[in-house]
Amino acid sequence: MQYQTQQSHTVAIIGASGYVGAELSRLIQKHSALKLFGCYVSEHSSDAGTLLGDLHPQYAHSLAAPLQPLSSAAKAAIIEQADTVFLCTDHAVSVALAPDFLQAGLKVIDLSGGFRLHDVNQYSEFYGFEHKHTDWLDRAVYGLAEWHAADITTAQLVAVPGCYPTAALMALLPLKQKALLTDKKVIVNAVSGVTGAGRKASLTSHGAELSLQAYGLFGHRHTPEIAQQLQQEVLFTPHLANFPRGILATVYATLNDTVTDDDLANAYQCYANTPLVRAKSQSRPAIKDVVQQPFVDIGWHRQGNQLIVLSAIDNLLKGAASQAIQCINLQQGLPVEEGLL
Ligand SMILES: NC(=O)C1=CN([C@@H]2O[C@H](COP(=O)(O)OP(=O)(O)OC[C@H]3O[C@@H](n4cnc5c(N)ncnc54)[C@H](OP(=O)(O)O)[C@@H]3O)[C@@H](O)[C@H]2O)C=CC1
Ligand SMILES: CC(=O)N[C@@H](CCC(=O)OP(=O)(O)O)C(=O)O
């Protein structure tokens, strides 16, 4: 396949000091087709003026950018000089920030949940705020790169999926696409490392409190996100564990009576030419194999009509920053894996 060489594309990162923002800054800094215009935090952030590499010393060699406060002047400069803005901010912050950039004609790739759901009422129910920008909600494209490549390519606003939905949907969509599942509720149990909760201190992510524990039972905001994309009911239970990063999702689904082993293998063949998906029957993906990697590892196992699919990702990469890079690569006419391998 031939790819067109693009001129350098200028991007700004807002929320750059967070776990996701720092990963994205690192990836963009080493991406040959992207030019980093600036890294931003909130206007009155205590980290304004700090070097990103001082906050995240593991990237000190490559992250010399100073964090800048997102003042009105900074927003105007971004609008003037950047082509794409990445939002690595909280959901409500992203919803408040995105429209100004979009109205000015920039592209926005939002890594929060602020534009992922189609049903606006689910924002009050699952996110705890009333969504005021339904016009953009309607135009947002879901950035699951392997499944929505064509729409992502032309989208002005991309809503990058949540980390748990990425793991679950990458496992389930091949089965759904081939109509191999019954209508029975799909069950997803997933375990996440603690960076999934963001960089800000909280009691639940405090070292002394960490263990292995379920949370968000029946009501986690990723339940409607997975169900919306799968078009099927789902029972999703996230678990927080005492390791830094990675997600392992264990997915339980019921197969239609006529499904053969070959049907399953054929369904997962959809990933045969996708460089960042490693899907293999009988494999047992492990977090250690995907940490610091942009891959999703998938393994499927059946007993009669019961199917178990295992799916492992790095929550900060395929679950956020590297998936965002896949999206901009698609938009720039580059191979999805550009800058990631
Ligand atoms: N962590 C994960 O595994 C994943 C996270 N996400 C989503 O990505 C987003 C970022 O997550 P994460 O990195 O974990 O979060 P963090 O809490 O680690 O980082 C949040 C960032 O936003 C900045 N920020 C806060 N308020 C504002 C504001 N008003 N204007 C500009 N910047 C602001 C913070 O800096 P400061 O407060 O100093 O201004 C910080 O840089 C969230 O929406 C999250 O839900 C998505 C997938 C996976
Ligand atoms: C361990 C942990 O706390 N994980 C986060 C999910 C992080 C993620 O994917 O984020 P968004 O949908 O918020 O973008 C949570 O459960 O809220």
Describe this structure in words.
With 341 residues, the protein is α/β, with parallel strands linked by helices. It folds into two domains: 164 residues, NAD(P)-binding Rossmann-like Domain (Rossmann fold, 3-Layer(aba) Sandwich), CATH 3.40.50; 151 residues, Dihydrodipicolinate Reductase, domain 2 (2-Layer Sandwich). Helix content is 29%, strand content 23%. It has a seven-stranded parallel β-sheet with strand order 3-2-1-4-5-7-6, with helices on both faces. A seven-stranded mixed β-sheet has the order 9-10-8-11-14-13-12, covered by helices on one side. Helix 8 packs parallel to helix 9. The structure holds NADPH dihydro-nicotinamide-adenine-dinucleotide phosphate (NDP) and N-acetyl-L-glutamyl 5-phosphate. The site of NADPH dihydro-nicotinamide-adenine-dinucleotide phosphate has 32 residues, from helix 1, strand 2 and helix 4. It comes from Idiomarina zobellii. GO terms for molecular function: N-acetyl-gamma-glutamyl-phosphate reductase activity; NAD binding; NADP+ binding.
